[in-house]
Amino acid sequence: MKSRQPTPVDLTATSPYGTFFGVSQACFDQVWQTLTGPKGQSVTYVSMEIGADRDVYHPIKNLLQEMGKQYKLPPDLSPLANKFLHGPEKIPTYSGGLGILAGDTLKSFADCKIPVAAISLLYRHGYFSQLVDMNLGQVAWRREWEPEAVPGLYPLHQPGNPDQPLTVTVDFHDQQDQPIQAVAQVWLKMEIGSGLDFFVPEILLDYDIPASPEWIRKSSHQLYDSSSEASKAIQRRLLGAGVLPVMRTLGLTSDSIHLNEQHGVVLVLALISEILHRRLGDDFRRLADDREIMAAAEEAARHVVYTIHTPVKAGHDRFPRSLYHGLEHSFFRRILQLLAEDEQNPEAYNFTALAMRVNRATNSVSRLHREVTRTQFPQFKERISAITNGVHHLTWISENKAQVYDSAPELAGWRHDPSVFRQADKLLKSTRFRQAFATAWQADSKYLIDHVNAMLAEHRQQRISTWIDPPNYLSYLDEKESRLDYRTFTFGFARRFSTYKRADLVFEDLDHLARILVDQQWPINFIYAGKAHPADEPGQGLIKTIIDIQEELYQRTDGLARLVFIPDYDMAVAKMMVAGCHAWLNSPKRPLEASGTSGMKAAMNGVPNVSIMDGWWVEGYHEGQTGWKFGYEGPVNPELLSEQRAEMLYSEDAASFYETLPDILATFYQEPEPAAYLDRGLMNLALNCPIFNTHRMAAEYVARYGLDLPQDIAEQMAKFRSLYRSDLE
């Protein structure tokens, strides 16, 4: 049943911890009572990063803009409303796919009314901002943002004392087991469902306060601080060790804790300690033997659900044992020696191994990734299953496409139930829908290309006014010569620049690529974006390679091929690209891409994928109906997990791409119209949109959580699960 449209008086709620804007008091109380109820029928979701910028999805802002046409907001609401309408929209506490997936997941939990509270860290310096210089490549600089100014982000206060911030204390220990207290201020961000009648609280721990030691504060500043092994280890511990204290402080009673990757896994040390304390009393550290520790670990495991996201070595946390002599109590180190053994390096703790051992359910993020993970961790093979990722359809579908979907009776209700996209195949023969969809796609393409042309013009001016040499060759040409045309076939490529993703693959043989384009006089745009971690020098080298290729590609193709790099990639750039390009390019080395979600976002907009058969695309390809495949697609074996350049299959997979490219371009440039190309876009709606969304993904996780949900919600979750079984053998 459709929720009643709120009025201004429904938009505030108070609790002992503060006043919140965007939901009614009744909604807030209902959600909070479930999260703190004695039955533990909720979930705590732990993630190192959560991406949910408000410039790509903003139901409260939309509501307020509508209300402004109907109501005069009461004076007491005006400051809060103005903050949502005009306040900052960036929340830079994410680096890329993992964090954006976390944000999408929480949005779907809120939409589907699943009782979840998330816990993460608040990074005062966020993730780095990116400048890109023609000669220097990527230049990282510190992002400045003010959490206090961001709408929907609230510093909590002590109950009964609004002037006293709510804090939690986490104990570190020196080499003599003496406690060192780290103190975090507690913030709350509300992820409000599209129906505006449910929310998921995101609890963010801010350790950058005077009560914490300076070395703790410094390590908490920036997401994925890798200035030293110690900083990385401290940051992981600030997350994991903070989970139970903040749950106890707020009264959260979740019986299930979901680890989104292993970053917060040290929370299991606290779980094991609590269990032993309950069984053995205050002297449990001295009394517990190894057998009792392992029995407590088995009990702790019943509370943990674990999602592993990557097969890439750099994605698994390993830390020298010696490092923990100044961080963890000796009893915790004893637990780590039992449960975090690294078979390849006996002098290190392996946190992925710890997460693998202490959980009741482990899942990969695609079917192929399940096989890779079983290959990497054969000792846990029987417990490793698959839940393929999805994306939040309401976030990533463009406004132009959304209006077209709204106009089709066959897609009625798609906003709250993405399974209705199964009806989209009925629209293949609808001239009216096809024309409307093609017009919307063209509008999205124009929006993207207009943005790129404006950026190039701005960069042309920067050459005069700043020290930055623009990162695009086209900015060094005159404006008429450099302009991109939105009707030209455009590849989009945007993701983290890591070597295994092979951003430069399709430019491996420029002579071959140029011949294809020049022989047929096919114009083409390549639009790239993405960041490399500041410590990832090979990834930064890939960005420089893309920049260095631009002029040669342009010259060899007589201007037919134009390669552009958009600096400072974020969610807004991503949304513009996945909707406005004509094909989404994905070129990782199989099988190193665990899932990938950017291609799913393109599919939501009816944009075909052109991809290696890796990650989710193995499930989303559908025999060419939704896009194209290229490259190696043989069996998974341990040798293929190598990330050495000589073993990255560049020449083989590039040659396969060049074989595929003529068919793609001939289909797009087909006269009098690209009907077959449009068919692929529409089949994405019918075959991929009902499946690769976070509503379906959330439903699969709900089954793992074992929640006792109200009947209507349970039935909706069962319906989403019936659409697809990720774990199908």
TrEMBL record:
GO process terms (BP): carbohydrate metabolic process
A GO term, aspect molecular function: glycogen phosphorylase activity
The family this protein is said to belong to: Belongs to the glycogen phosphorylase family.
Class of enzymatic activity (EC top level): transferase
Keyword annotations of the record: Carbohydrate metabolism, Glycosyltransferase, Pyridoxal phosphate, Transferase
Organism the protein comes from: Desulfurivibrio alkaliphilus (strain DSM 19089 / UNIQEM U267 / AHT2)
E.C. designation(s): 2.4.1.1
CC cofactor: pyridoxal 5'-phosphate
Chain positions with N6-(pyridoxal phosphate)lysine modification: 601
Pfam family, one: Phosphorylase
PANTHER family: GLYCOGEN PHOSPHORYLASE (PTHR42655:SF1)
Function recorded in the entry: Phosphorylase is an important allosteric enzyme in carbohydrate metabolism. Enzymes from different sources differ in their regulatory mechanisms and in their natural substrates. However, all known phosphorylases share catalytic and structural properties.
NCBIfam families found in the cross-reference section: more_P_ylases
TM regions (residue ranges): none
Reaction equation(s) it catalyzes: [(1->4)-alpha-D-glucosyl](n) + phosphate = [(1->4)-alpha-D-glucosyl](n-1) + alpha-D-glucose 1-phosphate
Gene3D superfamilies, sorted: Glycogen Phosphorylase B
Annotated protein name in UniProt: glycogen phosphorylase
Annotated InterPro entries: Agluc_phsphrylas (IPR011834), Glyco_trans_35 (IPR000811), Glycogen/Maltodextrin_Phosph (IPR052182), Pyridoxal_P_attach_site (IPR035090)
Highest taxon of source: Bacteria
